[in-house]
Please model this.
Amino acid sequence: MKYYLIAGEASGDIHASHLMKAIKEEDSEARFRCFGGDMMAAEGAELVQHYRDLAYMGIFPVLMHLRTILRGMKRCKGDILAWQPDVLILVDYPGFNLKIARFVKQHSNIPVYYYISPKIWAWKEWRIKDIKRDIDALFSILPFEVKFYEKHHYSIYYVGNPTVDEVDAYLKEHPADEECFRRDNSLDARPVIALLAGSRKQEVRDNLRRMVEAAKPYSRDYQLVLAAAPGLDDDFYKECASSLDISIVRDQTYRLLQHSTAALVTSGTATLETALFRVPQVVCYYMKWGRLASFARWLILKIPYISLVNLIADEEVVPELVAEQMNPKNVCRHLADILPGGSAREAQLHGYQRMATILGESGAPKRAAKEIRSKLKNSNNQD
Model:
C-alpha cells in the first residue's frame, strides 16, 4: 500500500519515522511519500519537502513567510492528489494538517488518519468540528483525550505513548555509566541538576536566567547542566544564564536525565521525558506581563494544568510555576523540596509511577500500525 505522511517539526519527524518502521512490519510492500524530515527519509520515505522549510511559529514569523507557507501547502495538496495514496496520515502540526485534511476530503476519496491528536482540549476546542468532518480515524497518545472526544461523540483509538517507547529503548541500549558521562562532558563529582529551558530563543531568554538564579544557592553541592537545543549556540546560553557558571551538553538530553538528581523544566514533552527517567522536577514557564498573563491563561486554556505529567495523572504530581509565579524565590523553594531529603521528593516519584501505569506499556507505534492496517483492510473489503 501507499502511505503519505505529513509531519511539521522535529518531534513529529521522530514519531512518524517510528510509525513507518512499525507499518513496514505489518505491510512488507509499504511505500512512503512525505512532507517531513531526515528521520522519515532515512526510514524509506520519498521526501517531497523538508519541514524546516515551513516551520515558522508565532504571528510575525508566520506573516513574514506566509507566501512560502502557502506555496508549500499548495505543493503538498497537488502532490497528494497526483500520487493517490491509499491513506494520508497526519502527525500533529494541526495548523497545516487540518487544512490539508479539509482539501483532501473535498477533492478525493483518500482516507485521512491522524496520529498524535491536535491539542484542541487545551484551547481551540471549536476545531472538533473539523476533526469530525475530515478525519476518518484518530490515534491518540494521551489517555485523557479519550474522554474529551467521547464528550464530543467522536471515537478515537488510544495506542499508548511513543515517548515511553523512546525512553525504554534508550535505557536498554545505554546502561548508566555516570563516570563516563562526567568524563565526556568535563563535569566534576557533584550531583547534577538538569536545566531543560525550551527550544526557542524567547523561551530560553524568559526562563533560563530565572532557573539559574533559583539554583544558585545549591551550586556548592550541585552542578547545573543545561541540555542545549539545536540551533542555539553556547554564547547565547551563557548570555541568558546570568553570572553563574553552567555546563552545556548537546544531543544528550536523555543521557543528561539518566544521570541527574533533579531538574528544572519548561513545559512540553520534556516534562514527560523527565518523569519517565524518574527525575524529580519543577515545571517553570515564565510569561511576560505577570498577572495579566495568568488571567489570560485561565481565560483561554481549558485545562487545569500545563504539564503532561499532571494532565495524565489528573492531579498535581509536579509543581507548576507559571507567569508571575515563576520567579527565583518560588523555584528555589520548590527545588529544595525535590532534592534528596526534600519533603516532596518521594511523593513525586510515587506520582511518576501512577502516571506511568496510566500511560501503559511501550509499543505505541506498533499498536497504531496494526490499527491502521486493520482499518485499511476492512475498508478495502467493504469496497
